[in-house]
Amino acid sequence: MRLILTYLKRYKKLFAVNVCSVFGFALVELGIPTIVAQMVDEGVAKGDQNYLFQMGTLIAVISVVGVAGTILLGYCCARISTSITRDMRNDIFAQVQSFSTHEINQFGVSSLITRTNNDAFQIQMFVNVLLRTALMTPVMAVLSMIMTIRASLPLSLIIGATIPMIIFGVTMVARISEPISEHQQAAIDALNRISRENLTGIRVIRAFNNDTYEAKRFDVSNKDYMRHSKRLFKLMSVTQPIFFFLMNLASMAIYWIAAQLIDGGTLPVGQLIAFNEYLFHAMFSMMLFCTVFMMYPRAAVSAKRIEAVLQTTTSIEEKEQGIKVDDVSSITFDHVTFAYPDGEEAVLKDISFTVHKGEKLAFIGSTGSGKSTLINLIPRFYDVSDGAIVIDGVNLKELSLHQWRDQIGFITQKANLFTGTIAENLRFGKEDASEEELIHAAKVAQAYEFICEKEQGFDEMLSEGATNLSGGQKQRLSIARALVRKPKVYIFDDSFSALDFKTDAKLRHELKKETTDAITMVVAQRISTIMDADQIIVLHEGEIVGKGTHEELLKSCTIYHEIAASQLSEEELSHE
């Protein structure tokens, strides 16, 4: 409820209108039975047609007011609940955007999607019902009880005896349903995870002919979700008939006692008609209360899951008044050690080096040596565990994070392109880039030729995941996207792996012209990609085992020589 109240405060005026419409609706609904009772006991008994006409006109006017109040109530409820859900989703999305990779891995991508969509929807449904009924229920219940006591004290005692039983039943249902709701939402997480893995890995699944296995895996998770849902729905479906049964028993007792009171002349017929209406509203209000209370456990579970996201602070803390760097002259790793937050052993150990503007620094090493981890520290996707990364003499943690990332052109190992046109993807890092800038970047990245071959050119639409492009085309567009930004620091994380040797050579030749005033850092598996680097760092099991130029490392570093020997011919090695 705390989460809902936080968002509800944003719509105080609309909530005030909602409250007024509830009171108006309650007065209308309870006022009409009172008028009808007077018409029966006074107008009909006396045969006063003029009185009956006046009361009938009053009922018509009140009914119109009641309809207007109902429409206004529905509008306010819908507007507030949908607005709260919109704000909630925006806040969740913004919070997730601030997370480091550690927090995203902690929740899981599928779970974050579920919390943004399904859990927020559960809150929306609950708030909508809550605003319609939670305000109306106490108003209708209190006013109905007052009216029933005025009409007949003996009959009102029957209602008073029934209500505690209903409240007790609702409380028990809520306690039983809460853990079931928690399991149900966790099952949705699992379903989303399997669906996401299946859709993104459909080619691998088909290549290994594992469609049946994946279908079984999904079926197990789907049945788990079905089992928890069935338990929840069975509980709800059994609860409502029991409550109606209690209401019917109360009605039978009321009619039996009322018959004796009428026979004794102590209860007018009109009062019995009015009492039945009051009874209906009192019991129906309790039923609405039961509905809200039964929905509450599931909404509470969803609210806890959303709060967990909103209250999680990122491990990457940014200084409020961070130092801004307009130019980057050097990057220094000063005895940097790094271990993942959930890892026990350090992935990088005592890494030290310096790279200056205009230089190209390359990293090479066996799989798992820590190359990608090292360059992920530069944009602060993670913070170092020990030591420091220094930018022009300033600790990286002291810099303005957003402004620092504006200085970086990061080309990831896996090319990530977004649904939209080629031009929109190239402008991802610079929205106001001109057409000339796009063409120039595409030419440097060796992408201009295949873009021109597309029917729409730069306006060609890319499908989800850019599946209508080859791996090499994706990589070249990713490089062009970074070039459009004209950053001070270029980071290539094995970004040439899908390119043929000829294209690779052309691209590197053109890149060298573009990066003369920038720092270039390259992670590569190919020796040919980094031979021209000013400095090459060889990593092995998270430690630097070699540092120097290509020629120097061939002589001084055994590991580098082994890598080179596996890729270059004896003639090329001896020539070097």
**How large, in whole angstroms, is the Cα Rg?**
35 Å
Provide the structure class.
alpha/beta
**Distance N terminus to C terminus?**
71 Å
CATH architecture of the largest domain: Up-down Bundle
Ranges where pLDDT stays below 50 over 5 or more residues in a row are none
Q: How is the main sheet built?
A: 6 strands, mixed
Q: What's the tally of helices?
A: 21
Mean pLDDT: 82
Percent helix range: 55-70%
> How many strand segments?
12
- The order of strands across the largest sheet is 6-9-10-3-11-12
Domain module tally: 2
By CATH, the topology of the largest domain is: ABC transporter transmembrane region fold
Q: What would CATH call the homologous superfamily of the largest domain? A: ABC transporter type 1, transmembrane domain
